[in-house]
Amino acid sequence: MTGLVPWAVLCGLALGLGVWLLISLAPRLSRPNLASRVAPYVVDVSLNARDLLDRRTADPLPVFAALVEPVFGRIRRVFEVLVGGSDVIARRLRQANLTISVTEFRSRQLLWAAGGVVVALVVGMVAATLQPISPVAESAFGLAAGVGAFVGRDYVLQRAAASRVKRMTQELPAVLEFMTLSLSAGEGILDAIRRISRISHGELAAELSTVIGDVSTGLPLADSLIALSSNLQIPPLTRAIEQMTGALERGTPLAEVLRAQAQDARDDAKRELIELSGKKEVAMLVPLVFLILPTTIAIAIFPGIFVLQLGFG
Question: What is the pTM of this model?
Answer without folding.
Answer: 0.66
